[in-house]
Specification:
Strands 1-2 form a two-stranded parallel sheet. It is globular and about 45 Å long. The protein is mainly alpha-helical. The chain has one domain: 3-Layer(aba) Sandwich (Rossmann fold), CATH 3.40.50.2300. The protein contains 6 helices and 2 strands; from the N terminus they run H-H-E-H-E-H-H-H. The longest helix is centred in the last third of the chain and has 20 residues. Helix 1 packs across helix 5 and helix 2 packs across helix 5. Helix content is about 45%, strand content about 5%.
Length: about 130
């Protein structure tokens, strides 16, 4: 969701990539709630940092606790910043209906949007 928002409304001065510690498929609920907000992330795919090995990062932003705790070491010029969000799949695991699951995804989607809308300020504070 963060990559989708970044490409859609993030500051144009930046290039945006998304990668995780582990490769996962695209989450159907994340795709649905982003589509509700007018952002199509269906062409995105789950990547690992190995797939972005040729990219030199100025800033790496971790958005979940697991990534923050297990983030690899980057070259000396790369700054790592953690802006944490709840993990919707973990929040939704005990929900028994799709609508119950979507509540969590929508909340986190909106929280991510608020950060991306003011990304440069958030990066400057960290």
């Amino acid at each position: 969701m963060a990559e989708g928002w970044a490409h859609s409304i993030g500051p144009a001065a930046h290039e945006y990539y998304s990668a995780g510690i582990e490769k996962h498929g695209m989450n159907q609920y994340a795709m649905q709630v982003m589509q509700e907000a007018g952002v199509d992330i269906s062409s995105q795919y789950s990547k690992t940092l190995d797939e972005l090995a040729d990219v030199e990062f100025d800033v790496v932003v971790t958005v979940c606790g697991h990534a923050n705790e297990t983030c690899p070491v980057f070259s000396g010029k790369t700054r790592v910043v953690h802006i944490g969000f709840d993990d919707p799949p973990k929040l939704a695991v005990e929900e028994t209906t799709d609508e119950g699951r979507l509540v969590h995804y929508r909340r986190v989607r909106d929280e991510i949007r608020a950060v991306i809308e003011d990304l440069d300020t958030h990066l400057a504070e960290k």
